[in-house]
Amino acid sequence: MSRMLASTSRNSFKRVFREAALWSSQSECTGVLPVIFFRCQSTQQVATKSAPHSSSSTIRNKPWSFVPDHSFQGTASGSAIARYQFRSTGFANSKNTIQVLRMCKEMKKEGVEPDIIIYNNLLACLAEDCHVLEAWAVVEDMSSMGIAPDRNTFHHLIHASRQLHSTAIWDIIDKMEAENIRPNEQTFLLMIQRHTTTDKRNLEFILQCMYEMGSRGLVIELTIAQDVIGVAAELGFPRLALDLAENFEATSVRRLSPETWMRCLASSAEALYAEGVQRCWEQVVGVLNVTPDEGLCLDVLHTAGRHGLSDLATDVIRVLRILGADWQEYHFAPLVEALCKAGNLKDAFGTLDLMRSSNIFPTAITAQPIYDFLKQDIDKVDGAWELLDKLRNEGKTIDRTAINAIIRAAISLSDLQRAVGAYKAFPDYKCVPDIDTFNTLLSGCIVASHRELGNRLLLDLKELGIKPDATTYERIIILCLTQATYEDAFFYLEEMKAQKFVPPRSTSLKQCGYTVSKSLQTFIDSGGQESMRRS
Question: Contact 406/364 with Cβ under 8 angstroms?
Fold first, then answer.
């Protein structure tokens, strides 16, 4: 195999030499040079110009011929000032003030005069450590050396003065303009950044800087805009933050980050700013397709419930399901409130059924918005029965908290007869009253001083097997005290104590017209453990 390769190589070289000799003879006869391809046109030109014709070679122009360029710097050592510029730049990047000062000492010993680059690198190190006086001393040294400061020089001065009062910053701006140096976007970025930190937030100064940028025709950068919007949102100015966000996106091709919009949403929800919550929710969930966390969703629900934004509340419930959060009573309570304030009482009743079907038990607090809606007018109480009948005809279950809310509204309107009629309607809707039902009816009996109805309710309570609570005992005692003969009140008081319930201050002696002294009340609150003081 090796012999075959060697012979092949020899034959190839022989063929090349024969062809070269043939080309040479043809060129002598015709006077036309053969076409030779080079890697680069410039190499071909240099080879054509510089390569002399040799009779000993069959190739007219040798390949890879070039003329060396001795004017190129190559690896020649630079000047002293160049070396110090390189070193000072490294020290400035690492913010090493000590090393750059030592370098300046070496320059002074060697007699090398600094230039603007070395001065700015020295200022960068001093500015990082907030050495304001030393930075101004460097600027004075520059002036004594006849070196005029540039824009970067003033930027370092602004950065060094970031812990001083804002008037010091404006003085630097005035000196910049005195040197015919106009501030640019980086100048105002340094001014704004000093007021976007946690310890020094000055929204008024930031807005003043933004106004100056607009008057000078400067475009605010994305990072500055996001920082300013974040400061406005965290300081409790959601409307300002939202206006800044929308104005930036309307005048710029760049888009704000989802985190910025999320901060606007959180600030608006915390302030219960309905318009801001709606706009931010549409941007975050609808446009950016970002899912807020459960805490933020709950804040949005509170805003929706306060302002009657039922569509928004419904969408938040949907997002909570996508988020994987377990539905709770405090998720649906703002939805019921929003539906009631929007005048959609039917859906509010239906929400109570949805809650119970999801194994979430609504309470009297959940139905409080329904009660607030019905107690405004007796006609609304009568109209509620029509809505319940429609839901029943649609095959939906009527929750007992809905009927309890109707009973509370009737008693609030001093209509005990309608309240009793609502109580008797429980079987029609396949519902069973609970302890809240009887406590509400007992409160109506107290207002009407109707002891007989109270006794009848107590009998129904026992027949249903519902155990009385402290509120039940309290109201039956007060009902007894409304009568001329109130000995039964003491019987229920003893029964209440036997059930380990503590009588509230509103019962017993106060209902009889007696004034309870401070020492007696302390004795009652302690359960008889503390002795009474003798006056």
Answer: no
User: Token digits for 127?
Assistant: 């500015």
Q: Please answer whether residues 158 and 187 qualify as being in contact, where contact means their C-beta atoms are separated by less than 8 angstroms.
A: yes
Tell me if the pTM is above 0.90. no
Is 143 in contact with 129 (CB distance < 8 Å)?
Answer: no
**Rg, C-alpha atoms of the chain:** 45
The end-to-end CA distance of the chain, in Å, is 130
What are the residues facing 201 on neighbouring strands?
Answer: 196
Angle at 375 between CA 374 and CA 376, to 5 degrees: 90
Q: Hey, what are 463's tokens?
A: 């027949």
Rounded Cα distance, 278 and 313, in Å: 10
Percent of the chain topping pLDDT 90:
59
Per-residue pLDDT band at 57 (split at 50, 70, 90)? low
**Residue 498 pLDDT > 70:** yes
From the CB of residue 344, how many other CB atoms can be counted at a distance below 10 Å?
16
CA-based nearest residue to 100, from 82, 122, 132, 126: 122
Alpha carbons 112 and 383: distance in angstroms, whole number: 96
Where on the phi/psi map is residue 434: left (φ > 0), alpha (ψ -120 to 50), or beta?
A: beta
> For residues 78 and 66, what is the distance between their CA atoms, to the nearest angstrom?
27
Q: 345, exposed or middle or buried, with CB in 10 Å at 0-12, 13-18, 19+?
A: buried
* Residue pLDDT, tens place only, 75-107: 445 688 899 999 999 999 998 999 999 999 999
Sequence-distant (≥ 6) Cβ neighbours of residue 150 within 8 angstroms? 116, 120, 181
Question: Is residue 73 classed as helix, strand or coil in its secondary structure?
Answer: coil
Structure tokens at 15: 């063929």
> What 8-state DSSP symbol labels residue 196?
B
- Tokens representing 362 are 């609504």
Which of these, 91, 79, 98, 157, lies nearest to 118 by C-alpha position? Answer: 91
pLDDT of residue 517: 66
Structure tokens at 340: 């009631």
The pLDDT tens digits for 248-296 are 999 889 999 999 999 999 999 999 999 999 999 999 999 999 999 999 9
525/244: higher pLDDT: 244
**Distance (Å) of CA 362 to CA 315, 369, 401, 412:** 20, 12, 7, 21
Token pair for 97: 């003030």
**Phi and psi angles of residue 223, each rounded to the nearest 5 degrees, phi first:** -65, -40
| Residues facing residue 196 across a β-bridge | 201
